[in-house]
Amino acid sequence: MADERARYFRRLRRLRASARRWSVTAGGLGGAAAILTPYAGIGLPDAAWAGAAGGALALAAWRWIDLRALAAQPAPPALDPAEAAARSRARLVAAVERLPVGPGVLAEVRRFRSRAALRGTAAAEPWARLDRAALTLAGMAGRLTGLAEPALLEAAAADRSLRDLAERVASVERTVRLAPSPARESLADTHRTLVGQLHDGVAAYEQLVVAAAGYVAEDARPTGAHPAASRLTEATDLLHGVASALAELRAVGDQRRAA
């Protein structure tokens, strides 16, 4: 949604410019009509000048009336700076998403911001491992079809859950640093439990990625020789046969010339 205050002032500027422009046009046409009208009477060309001057004058009057009516209205309140920044950021994100590489760029930016927010906490290392595993799985996603599709959906759900858990680990860790001594021990125990859950979850996700790689490898393994290798062997044999035939023809030609 556009800024209503900015839209109001843009419309005000356009009306003011239009009113001035039509006022100048009406003055010029009126002066020309007064100078060019002969004293003996008004002919058809003079009537055209006078009509154009009258039309421009009427348009100028309407523009001034619209301008005064709009100026009499109170201007919309200014946006809160945070809200204005959020709207500007949303428009920028929408513009980038329309580009061919936009979604990938935005995903990388979000990943970098999340990694930077967890830097220095116990969640940073498992987050980096999760990132690597998720990127590896994304590279195989196009081949995980058929029976592997449910596992891919489970992996997506686990990825979201583990990232949320990593953010909670970082939040609790920051709170432990600020908490007073009586509450610090309880929070530290909770933090250790969450860190353990995060490491176990990331390890399970990595095992899933390894299993997915094994599925892709087995699915692509041919029963015999690879078709490309068979075709290359046939082409090699054909070239050898052609070369042998050319050598024989050349030998026969040499014998005939010698005779």
Broad structural category:
mainly alpha
* Bulk shape: flat
Distance, first to last CA: 97 Å
Beta-strand portion reads: under 5%
Major sheet characteristics: none
Helix content: over 70%
Count of helices? 8
Features:
259 residues; mainly alpha; flat
Descriptive report:
Keywords: Membrane, Transmembrane, Transmembrane helix. It holds the Pfam family Rv2743c. InterPro entries: Rv2743c-like. The chain crosses the membrane at residues 21-41, 47-65. Helices cover 83% and strands 0% of the residues. It has eight helices and no strands. The mean pLDDT is 78. With 259 residues, it is an all-alpha fold. Among the domains are: 4-72; 118-220. It has helices spanning 4-36, 44-72, 81-97, 102-117, 124-140, 149-178, 181-220, 227-258. It is flat. It starts with a helix and ends with a helix. Helix 1 (4-36) runs antiparallel to helix 2 and helix 5 packs parallel to helix 7 (181-220).
List the helices and strands and how they pair.
Elements: H1 4-36, H2 44-72, H3 81-97, H4 102-117, H5 124-140, H6 149-178, H7 181-220, H8 227-258
Helix pairs in contact: 1-2, 3-4, 5-6, 5-7, 6-7
How would you sum up this structure in a few lines?
83% of the residues lie in helices and 0% in strands. By secondary structure, it is mainly α. α5 runs antiparallel to α6 and α5 (124-140) packs parallel to α7.
